[in-house]
Amino acid sequence: MLGASPGDVLRYIDLPLIARSLIVAAAFAFTISLGEFGATALIARPEYPTVPIAIYRLFSRPGELNYGQALALSTILMFVAGAGMLIIDRLRLGDIGEF
User: Fold this and answer.
1) Which of 89, 71, 92 is nearest to 31 (CA)?
2) Does residue 2 surpass a pLDDT of 80?
3) Packing angle between helix 64-90 and helix 51-60, nearest 10 degrees?
4) pTM, rounded to two decimals
């Protein structure tokens, strides 16, 4: 730090130390928020449905086409959530072990 500007300290010291933690926190928050149906049902607007709300609406309508679309949307949600968890696992440091 000996004479470095605050911007240089942030860029060269602080960000490298917290970069992985920020990425893991963002991926974990994204993954958890994808499947959070209870809170989403309270604040979702009809013109902007989220994935869990769309799945719920498709399952509540009769018909094979709606059932198939709900299952496809559920599969996409499952893969996106799984990808988020894989990203978190890949960013783990080898020496430290678990987060």
Assistant:
1) 89
2) no
3) 150
4) 0.56
